[in-house]
Design goal:
Structural class: mainly alpha
Distance between the termini: 66 Å
Number of helices: 25
Radius of gyration: 23 Å
Strand order of the largest sheet: 1-2
Strand content: under 5%
Number of strands: 2
Length: 508
């Protein structure tokens, strides 16, 4: 490993490679800030540019820089205007945007930058040390285990439900699962619930749904409630409070530590990716928090912001484990990267570390450098980026609507998606007024297709549902899912039991 690291250092620290890192990080960061244009789109556009570089190592470093740069920068629009730049930063908006509305936009961006840096750096360290071993673990996961993992993800709905809102969260999850069934299934070439509309055969786009759930309702609320943006502008006339106090640093330090490891491990699993890592990270931290801290989640919790930001960046790094060591893409973005590697005549797999160590190790070293570059780029810009919130309401509303509509149209290249966006946006506004949580709907929509496809494959392979108890790892994951669902009720029961004991003791 030491020999490989030295090879990587000598390659990655050359002027050409440093230029690729900085260029990739810059492009990725600014593209990530724009709602709707995620890393998949920009990497697909950048492949011809990367191939024209000629050097496979430089090309992969450039594309990798674009990838984690987009995830790093995607938090900006989530925090400032509640319009997630990329799918992996949807969970960031749950507490990032309330912080921005409370006059803490600068602090929220600082926390996001530091959490992203730590998650990416710890992920790079773990990638360097455990890539071969984790690749063999990833091979143990089959369709049955992925089905169980999706069930664990769905059990996170308890983390997004307030007091007495579990039934509402469950209803929204079911709605998300139903929306996910629209269009053709991966296993069956038959359109479902399209009602003859050709444009629905490929289903509803994730960006469309994310914008409809968060960005469009926010614009509608700004129109309906002028005081909403008026008070916000008054608080943001002077951007301050950028630093994190020692107390806040101590609060988020264990969160960053846990989610760096968890996010990386989820990223290692082919098909999981940064989006699932961010949702699970948020859910885990909420369930681990005290009763008082749980009330802050969704209302501007610093833990609720740090958890998904750390997890999604660590997962990005983790997704390179199956890509480089097995040749298996860990997410949609790494699938495009795999295509780029093939176009560059590089064969990822177990022999890559032996046959072309300069590619493997220089990519890992470039991740360290890239995270430092991203931190240096983002921290000084925070006061200027945060000033977006000082824009008057008459300009802010068209700004949000423009990026929402353009993001959906460019992402899907389909005008019908705009009509779907408007219909779902109005429904989401009504749900918000009725105090229904929207995050569970998005979780159900994301995990629905993977849940269905892996369940169908498992049933076909095992000729029934016997895999649920025949495979120990599947059973263990399902037990964890049940535990996560029952945990809030269990904690409430323990709390009531302690209060009763205290009451009896005081009576004596």
């Amino acid at each position: 490993m030491l020999e490989g690291l030295l090879i990587g250092l000598s390659t990655a620290l050359s002027f050409k490679m440093l230029l690729m890192v900085v260029g990739g990080c810059l492009i990725g960061t600014f593209i990530g800030m724009l709602p709707g244009l995620g890393p998949m789109s920009i990497i697909a556009i950048m492949i011809p540019v990367a191939i024209s570089v000629g050097d496979p190592t430089a090309a992969l470093i450039l594309l990798a820089g674009v990838y984690y740069g987009a995830i790093f920068g995607g938090s900006t629009s989530s925090i400032l205007i509640n319009a997630p730049g990329v799918a992996g930063t949807v969970a960031t908006s749950f507490d990032g945007y309330p912080m921005a509305r409370a006059g803490k936009a600068g602090k929220a961006l600082t926390v996001a930058a530091i959490a992203s840096f730590c998650g990416g750096t710890v992920g790079a360290i773990l990638l360097m040390g455990f890539a071969p071993a984790l690749a063999s673990v990833a091979l143990l996961f089959h369709s049955a285990e992925y089905f169980a993992l999706m069930v664990v993800g769905l059990s996170a709905i308890a983390a997004f439900a307030g007091n007495g809102q579990v039934s509402k969260a469950l209803a929204m999850t079911l709605m998300g699962l139903m929306l996910a069934t629209i269009g053709e299934s991966a296993l069956f070439n038959m359109p479902r619930f399209t009602y003859g509309v050709m444009n629905l055969q490929s289903g509803i786009g994730f960006i469309t749904l994310a914008m409809a759930m968060f960005a469009l309702p926010e614009a509608i609320f700004l129109i309906l409630d002028p005081s909403r943006s008026k008070s916000q502008s008054e608080q943001q006339n002077e951007i301050k409070d950028l630093r994190i106090s020692k107390k806040e640093a101590k609060t988020i330090a264990p969160v960053i530590g846990r989610q760096s490891v968890l996010g990386f491990l989820i990223g290692v699993l082919p098909g999981a990716g940064a989006t699932i890592a961010s949702f699970l990270g948020y859910a885990v931290e909420r369930n681990l928090s005290t009763k008082d801290d749980q009330k802050e989640f969704g209302n501007g919790s610093i833990k609720g912001l740090a958890a998904p930001e750390t997890a999604n960046n660590a997962a990005c790094t983790g997704s390179f484990v199956p890509l480089l060591t097995l040749g298996i893409p860990g997410s949609g973005t790494t699938a495009i990267l795999l295509g780029a590697l093939v176009a560059l005549n590089v064969t990822p797999g177990p022999r890559l570390m032996v046959d072309q160590p300069e590619i493997f190790w220089s990519v890992i070293v470039s991740m360290y450098i890239g995270n430092i570059v991203l931190l240096i780029l983002n921290l000084p810009l925070i006061p200027y980026i945060a000033k977006i919130l000082t824009v008057p309401r008459t300009y802010l509303i068209p700004f949000i609507l423009f990026f929402t509509l353009m993001g959906v149209y460019i992402g899907q290249n389909n005008a019908v998606e705009l009509l779907i966006l408007i219909v779902l946006g109005i429904l989401a506004t009504i749900f918000r007024m009725a105090s229904y949580p929207l995050a569970p709907l998005l979780i159900g929509f994301i995990l629905g297709p993977m849940l269905e496809n892996n369940f169908s494959r498992s049933v076909q392979l095992y000729d029934g549902v016997g895999f649920l108890w025949e495979r120990p790892m599947t059973g263990a994951l399902l037990i964890i899912a049940v535990f996560l669902v029952l945990l809030p009720s269990l904690r409430l029961w323990i709390s009531n039991w302690k209060e009763k004991r205290k009451f009896v003791a005081d009576g004596d």
